[in-house]
Amino acid sequence: MVRFSSNMKKKHLSQFFIGLILIVLINVLAARYFFRVDLTEDQRYTISDATINVLDNLDDEVFVKVYLEGNFPATAAGFKRLQNAVRETLEEFRIYAGDRVQYRFIDPSAQTDTKARNQFHMELMQKGLQPTNLIAKEGEQKTEKLIFPGALVSYKGKETPVLLLKGNKAATRDEILNQSVEGVEFELASAIRKLTLKEKKRVGFLQGYSQIDPARIADLTLSLQESYDVFAVDLPKSNSLHGLDAMIMIKPDTALTEADKYKIDQFIVNGGKALFFVDAMRVDSVGEQGTIAFPYNLNLDDLLFRYGVRLNATLIKDLNAGKIPLNVGTMGNQPQIQLMSWPFYPLINSFGRHPIVRNMDAVSTKFVGTMDTVKANGITKTPLLFTSQYTKVLPAPVSISFNEARRNPDPATYNNGAKPIAYLLEGSFESLFKNRIVASDERAKDFKEKGLPSKIIVCSDGDLVLNEFDRRKNQPLPLGVDRFMGSVFANKDFVMHAIDYLMDENGVIMSRAKEIQLRPLDKLRLKEERLSWQVINMLVPVLLVLIFGVVRQYLRQRKYAR
C-alpha cells in the first residue's frame, strides 16, 4: 500500500513538472513569435494586412477621441454595439501599435450646464462631426438624446474627423448600424493613414477638352489634396502624362485629337490609373420650352471600346429619381414652388459586389446614359453602379422638358430593368495604336502595345463628380449636397473610394470588404419563450456541474476502492 502511494506521488510529480515545462515553453514561444487566432465565423476581430502596415509604421502617437459615449437607452442596443466595436477595434490597433495608439471615450453631453453643453456640441459640428438624434421608447416613456457617433483623430498637431455612423439610408436602423460596425476599421485606419502619409501619389485633372468651371470640382480637389498631390494638366500642351499616378477626365465636350488620345492610351498601357466621367449625350440648358439632347462626338469611343466598354447614345429615365423645384401655380401674386421628381436625374441605390461601393449610400446623377461591355482579352469588368429596375431608355435624339416632372408616369412603360452606369476594368490593356505606329515614327522607340497591369473606371455620367455652387454665399457646396432636396448623397465617397482602390488595390480600402452577419432575435419567440430560456440558462449549467461531480466521484470510488 505504501509502495502504491509512493508510485502515485512520483507519477503526479512527473505530470506536474511536465505541465510546468510545457507552460514555460509556450510562454517563451508566445513572447518571441506573436500570433493571434480569430475563431469568429465572420472574422470580425481580424485586422487587414494593410491596416497592420499603417500601424507598424507609426513614428509618433495617434490619439483618438471617440464621442460615442453616454447612457444609451436599452432599446438602442445597436449604438452600444457600435460603441463596443469601436473600442474593440482600437484595442486591436493597440495590439500592433502599442502605446503609439491612445484613445479616450468622451460623453459630449456630460456637461450639466446647458449653455456649455450646446457650445461644445457646436464645436464638434464645426470640426466635422454630425450629431444624430436618438429617439427611443421604453415602455410608455419616450426619450430623446443627441449623440455624436464620430471621433477626432490627431497626429503631430493635425486632426481629422471620422464619421462612424455610415451606411445606406434606405436600410433599416439595425442594418445601418451593422454596416457601420463593418466599416469601423476602414474609417479609423483610413483617417490614420491620411494623417501619417509621408509621400503622396500624384493625381491629374485633364484639361483642354472641357468647359467645366474649376469651382464645380473645388470640393473634390480639396478632398483629394488631403491624401494626394493634385495637378491641373493641360492635355494639349503636355508632351505626356508621365509623372502622374492617376488621371481624371471629367465631362469632355469637344473631340480629342489623335495625339492627345495617344497620350492617354500610353499612360494607361504603362500602368497609369484612370477615371473617366463622360456624357455620351449633349444636354444644353433646359429652359421652359425644353431642349433636345444629341450625341457628342468626343473621339473617345474607339479608345474605351478597346479597353472593354461602350457608351451608348441614350438617356435613362428612372422612376427612382431626384427632384427639381417647379412653379406649380400662384397664390395671390406669389408663385408656389414645389419639389417634383424628375426622371432624368436618377438616384443610384443599387451597387455591385466590390469594396469600392460596399455599404454605400445613394449616389445622385444627372442625364445618365447606358453602357455595355465588349470583348477585351485579359480584362476583368466589374459593374459598380446600377439604376433602379424601373427605367426607360431613350435613344438619341431625346426631347427633355421640365414638364416631364408634372406628369404622372406610367410604371408599365418603365420596364427596361436595372442598367449599369459605371464599370471597373482591370488587367493589362492593349493599346488602341497597336499596328499603327510605324518604325519611322519618332514615338516608336517608347511605344508599348501591351504593358503593365492597370485599372480604370468608366462612368456614363459627367455630372456625378461636380459639386453645386451657392451663388448667394459665393462658395461651392460639398460634393453630393443637393441644395434643393437638402440631402447629402454619397458621390464623394464613391470617387474617393474609387481612387483609393485604383492607387492601392491591397490597401486599407480592402477592409471595406469585411462582412458581419446580422443575426436578429425572433422577437415573437423571445416574448413567448423568455421564461423557459431563462430557466434553462440558470438551471442547466448547475445540473451539468452536479452530474459531472457525481460521475467523477463514482468513477474515483470504483478505481480506488480495493
Question: What does this 3D model show about the protein?
Answer:
The protein has 562 residues and is of the alpha+beta class. The protein has three domains: 49-194, Glutaredoxin, CATH 3.40.30; 201-489, 3-Layer(aba) Sandwich (Rossmann fold), CATH 3.40.50; 528-562. Helix content is 31%, strand content 26%. It is built from eleven helices and 28 strands. It has helices at 2-32, 49-56, 77-97, 114-126, 173-182, 184-196, 218-225, 258-269, 301-307, 491-503, 523-560; strands at residues 62-66, 101-105, 132-138, 141-147, 150-155, 158-163, 201-207, 228-234, 246-250, 273-277, 281-282, 291-295, 309-311, 314-318, 321-331, 334-348, 350-351, 363-364, 371-373, 380-386, 391-395, 398-400, 420-427, 454-459, 469-470, 475-476, 481-482, 487-488. The strands form nine sheets. Strands 8-7-9-10-24-23-20-17 form an eight-stranded mixed sheet, sandwiched between helices. Strands 2-1-5-6 form a four-stranded mixed sheet, with helices on one face. A hairpin with an 8-residue loop joins strand 11 and strand 12 (291-295). Helix 3 packs parallel to helix 5. The chain starts with a helix and ends with a helix. The model has no long low-confidence stretch (mean pLDDT 87).
